[in-house]
Specification:
Largest sheet: 8 strands, mixed
Strand order of the largest sheet: 1-2-4-3-7-8-9-10
Number of helices: 10
Radius of gyration: 19 Å
Mean pLDDT: 95
Strand content: 15-25%
Low-confidence stretches: none
Shape: globular
Structural class: alpha/beta
Length: 302
């Protein structure tokens, strides 16, 4: 196996760093990994990256993990536009999930430039949500298969943590700041101890927003807060897709089987989906990553 530090541009010119795992003999297949939010990046969870990289390359599939513009809390990237180079401030604190389209397109274009013809997209946590958003807005894309693991319900989780009245207050405050042109200002600490802008927090918790792809909390508790169709984005996926959760995922309210059943019901009649729950695994599949890698490998090689 060969491991290379690489760099490529998003579709709007942001330079993104990545790790490319390749076979010693050239393959025409590559899996691209999307990390989650919360200060995560493409170079962390070393065990996960190396496990996925080795398992896939041993089976004829190269593996690209990269830090996208939602990596870290606050991160400055270089951005190249024409003959000008500037600094671009991004990270969880500023990202809107729809920005993932630019990042994924950049990764796909890079893979194609390396000669890869069969491209798969893996997304962990928010990365799974990003697959849904990418597919929703860009139906005509070059991905052949999706793997979504530990898809997140940030809106419901935030609602559960602060309650109905405060949730409504935060939504209205974020809306007001965005409308007044202060969306990139940070929310006060009584709302979030973690630095985050009004626009990004609103993007994460808005029940009607792009981020809300896995609305388990609303469905589990029959809370009629959403106006948009539940699971709208993932319902529209027509490519072969695998959905995985750890049996002890700490962001599924202690009800992983119930959450997966809700999703299966929403996707009933769609034969392009497969599902799996890995017993005793948490949100990041700690201690179960070799098993995770084997399941993903089997699906991609089918």
């Amino acid at each position: 196996m060969n491991l290379s530090l690489v760099q490529f541009h998003s579709s709007v010119g942001v330079e993104l760093p990545g790790l490319l795992y390749e076979q010693n003999s050239k393959s025409d297949k590559v899996a691209i990994y999307l990390h989650g939010n919360g200060s995560a990046g493409g170079f962390y969870s070393v065990e996960l990256q190396n496990t996925l990289g080795k398992t896939l390359t041993d089976n004829g599939i190269s593996y690209l993990s990269f830090t996208n513009t939602g990596g870290h809390l606050i991160q400055s990237f270089d951005k190249v536009v024409g003959d000008k180079r500037e600094r671009y401030k991004a990270g969880v604190a500023y990202e809107l999930i729809k920005d993932c389209i630019q990042d994924i397109d950049g990764a796909v274009n890079f893979a194609k430039s390396k000669g890869y013809k069969h491209i798969y997209l893996l997304g962990s946590s928010t990365g799974a949500n990003k697959i849904c958003v990418y597919d929703w807005y860009k139906k005509q894309n070059d991905i052949e298969k999706y793997v979504l693991f530990s898809g997140g319900d940030d809106s419901g989780f935030y609602y559960q943590s602060i309650g109905d009245d405060r949730f409504e207050h935060v939504l209205k405050l974020c809306e007001s700041r965005i409308k007044s042109g202060k969306g990139r200002n940070f929310v006060p600490k009584y709302i979030s101890e973690m630095p985050i802008s009004f626009q990004s927090l609103y993007d994460q918790i808005n029940p009607e927003g792009d981020y809300n792809c896995f609305p388990y909390y609303w469905m589990l508790n029959s809370i009629k807060i959403m106006k948009k169709e539940p699971f709208r984005e993932i319902k529209s996926i027509t490519k072969p897709s695998l959905v995985l959760y750890g049996g002890q995922d700490e962001f599924c309210y202690g009800k992983v089987p119930e959450c997966v059943d809700i999703l299966k019901k929403a996707l009933s009649g769609k034969s392009n989906f497969q599902y799996g729950i890995i017993p005793d695994a948490d949100h990041s599949f700690f201690g179960k990553r070799p098993e995770l890698a084997q399941i993903i490998k089997k699906f991609l090689k089918e």
